[in-house]
Amino acid sequence: MAAIQVDNVTRTFGSVTAVDELSFTVEDGELFGLLGPNGAGKSTLINVLVTLLEPTEGTATVNGHDVTSETAAVRNSIGVVFQEQALDEDLTGEENLAFHARLYGMGRRERTDRIDEVLELVGLTEVRGDPVGTYSGGMKRRLEIGRGLLHEPAVLFLDEPTAGLDARTRRDTWEYIQRMNEDAGVSVVLTTHYIEEAEHLCDRVAIVDDGEIAAIDSPTALKATLGGTVVSLTVHGAVSALCDRLEEQSWVLEYARTDVGVNVTVERGETRVADLVHLADNVGAAITSVDIHRPNLETVFLSLTGAMIEDREDADGSAGEHRTQNAPLDTVDGRSEIATTEDDE
Ligand SMILES: Nc1ncnc2c1ncn2[C@@H]1O[C@H](COP(=O)(O)OP(=O)(O)OP(=O)(O)O)[C@@H](O)[C@H]1O
């Protein structure tokens, strides 16, 4: 049985379609990610799956239970960690868990055993007696994840599990998420707008944009669809002539004009910079900056939607707004010399 089955789910808020006819399956034991910018519809989808919102249209099951007609069964079989922290900072880590265990109706014996196990799993055994107010951001996050696991759910939902954490703590948190997925055998569905998180952590990723799934596959398979690196050129003058020349080159896999120049997809981008500069010279165009994007989920998002996730984030406040295709990759216009940067893997 699939952990989650979503069939044509739509959720609207007035005139806003937050989730638009989504269909996908999450297999038992998978670590599954919903990747997209703020406002893409990830939280709305999670809220439908955890029975906090009813779908406007379509159906979904979680652990075989229908999210509309079997809400109690769904809730009993899931754990949820929301974006907003919900811990009592005056209570100790252990007391926070005990409170939650009582809510779930766990008996004293079961409670004690399970709290010990969970604290061990999230690496908080030594600080179990300290007030949560003294915990670091990462420790609080782990405690929340542990709390979501107390009643041994089959599926754990994590909404932006590492938002607001520094890079190192984020990486540590990934290890704990992986550990629970592997050791506790729990299926995990997480939302994120961090490329690296989706890439590093997830077995499969759905790329979500404007309420729709643009692509769904393993990070490796998604990157393989690109078949090259994207070289973003900022160009002054003669962009059309440069595009005509790009069209003639057998080594150019694809190109697309942007507001500031052109994105060129080639094999091993770093080896083609000199050729691109040469081509530009020939047609009287000036390349003022070069950015090389190794294939990662950001470049997959770019090729699918015409914008970077970061651009969408910058445009936030207008979450979910439609942007023009091939929006600028960067605001490097006006640089006088060529700067070459590469995304970290
Ligand atoms: N309760 C609501 N009322 C009205 N509009 C909403 C509501 N909840 C979400 N939306 C809108 O639905 C769209 C999707 O929002 P959603 O929060 O699901 O996106 P998201 O990808 O989870 O982003 P974030 O990470 O910022 O929560 C946005 O346009 C948002 O403004």
Structural features, described:
This protein has a six-stranded mixed sheet, with helices on both faces. Strand 12 (252-257) and strand 13 (261-266) form a beta hairpin. It has 345 residues and is α/β, with parallel strands linked by helices. Helices cover 34% and strands 27% of the residues. Bound molecules: adenosine-5'-triphosphate. Adenosine-5'-triphosphate (ATP) is lined by residues 13, 16, 18, 36, 38-44, 160, 319-320. Residues 13, 16, 18, 36, 38-44, 160, 319-320 line the site of adenosine-5'-triphosphate.
Short structural summary:
The protein has 345 residues and is α/β, with parallel strands linked by helices.
Strand order of the largest sheet: 6-7-8-3-9-10
What characterizes the major β-sheet? 6 strands, mixed
**Rg, alpha carbons:** 23 Å
Shape: elongated
Oligomer: single chain
Mean pLDDT level? 85
- The appropriate CATH architecture of the largest domain is 3-Layer(aba) Sandwich
Number of strands: 15
Percent of residues in helices comes to: 25-40%
Identify the bound ligands: adenosine-5'-triphosphate
CATH class of the largest domain: Alpha Beta
Layout of secondary structure:
Layout: E1 4-13, E2 16-26, E3 31-35, H1 42-49, E4 57-62, E5 65-66, H2 71-76, E6 78-81, H3 93-103, H4 108-121, H5 137-149, E7 155-159, H6 167-183, E8 187-192, H7 195-201, E9 204-209, E10 212-217, H8 219-224, E11 229-236, H9 239-248, E12 252-257, E13 261-266, H10 273-283, E14 286-293, H11 297-305, H12 309-314, E15 340-342
Helix pairs in contact: 3-4, 5-6, 9-10
This protein binds adenosine-5'-triphosphate.
Domain ABC transporter: 4-235
GO biological process, one term: daunorubicin transport
Subcellular location: Cell membrane
